[in-house]
Design a protein that fits this description.
It comes from Prunus avium. It contains nine helices and ten strands. With 307 residues, the chain is of the alpha/beta class. The chain is globular, with a radius of gyration of 18 Å.
């Protein structure tokens, strides 16, 4: 595995749940009817952050008197299709409809300042996908703020995974606004630890502000590698723990238990960069920055890992 630090200025047969053809929109299939064949382009490896986007942190939670402000993500690979629902319920226990709807609505309206500030970094990262990734999986897609960065690519097909089904209408609206045909977009209710797609079925996996709150970071990274085809890439933006010995790290340590309670399991002190670097990707390029809109959810880690 090569680690770099750099500056930044189809046919998919989901695992018993979804299959897609190049001439039609994705359709649901029974587990015994799924067949796997990926029509991705030739192998590539691209060269070349969370004010807890989905977890707006303590001040946002307190200010709005809400509980979590960020969805979790999924837990086991290579399960029979009927086990995905069980894993979803284990990782993301059912909430009342009103809660899930409120959660999705607040996320849809509370992240604009963060998205505005992170936009330059995201634009450079997503530019690496242009013309190279036809089948894209986004874990923790939420309300779809990233769809505008790659939707303009002709023929791109996107599978958006999120445990909160109430996110779907916002994500679909974001796809329309971005110019992504709805026939090329599929929302899948699932979690990152148990992604319902076949092995080596996508060209790229996108995850922004997700690994802070998954139940099992290493398992999620295993799933990301599993669904990526050889040479495919994982594009990420996450918030990570501040440097040891700093005042910010002390504050994060103190507030971490409260953050997990208020923000659906979001951790302030995870060493996510280290986890990605040690997860077995052949090449990892990452960098860090700090955002004024991220408050204590700094620094922001962003980069690309190649399978």
């Amino acid at each position: 595995m090569i680690l770099h630090t750099i500056p930044f200025s189809s046919n998919i047969a989901p695992r018993g749940l979804i299959t897609s053809r190049s001439d039609s929109s994705p359709t649901r299939v029974n587990s015994d009817a799924s067949t796997a064949r990926s029509l991705a382009p030739d192998s590539f490896c691209f060269s070349g952050v969370c004010s807890c986007g989905r977890r707006r942190f303590v001040e946002a939670a307190v200010a709005t008197s809400l509980f979590p402000i960020c969805p979790s993500t999924s837990i086991a690979s290579k399960l029979p299709s009927d086990n995905y629902t069980a894993m979803l319920e284990k990782v993301h226990p059912p909430r009342p409809d009103w809660y899930e709807e409120l959660y999705a609505s607040v996320l849809n309206t509370s992240m604009q300042s963060y998205e505005d500030e992170i936009a330059g970094y995201k634009a450079e990262l997503f530019a690496e996908l242009k013309g190279k990734a036809q089948q894209v999986l986004e874990i923790g897609i939420g309300t779809g703020p990233n769809l505008r960065y790659y939707a303009a690519d002709s023929g791109v097909r996107v599978f958006g995974v999120d445990p909160n089904i109430k996110m779907e209408k916002y994500a679909r609206a974001a796809a329309v606004a971005a110019g992504l045909p709805l026939s090329n977009f599929e929302f899948v209710q699932a979690v990152g630890e148990a992604i319902p797609l076949d092995d080596a079925s996508v060209d790229a996996v996108v995850g922004t502000l997700v690994l802070c709150s998954v139940k099992d970071v290493d398992k999620t990274l295993e799933e990301i590698k599993r669904v990526l085809r050889p040479g495919g890439v994982y594009l990420f933006v996450e918030h990570v723990a501040a440097k040891d010995g700093t005042i910010l790290r002390f504050i994060q340590s103190v507030l971490d238990p409260l953050q997990q309670t208020l923000a659906d399991g979001c951790h302030l002190t995870r060493e996510t960069g280290r986890s990605i670097s040690k997860s077995g990707f052949s090449d990892v390029k990452l960098s860090m920055t700090s955002l004024s809109s991220a408050s204590i959810i700094n620094p922001q880690l962003f980069g690309i890992a190649c399978k």
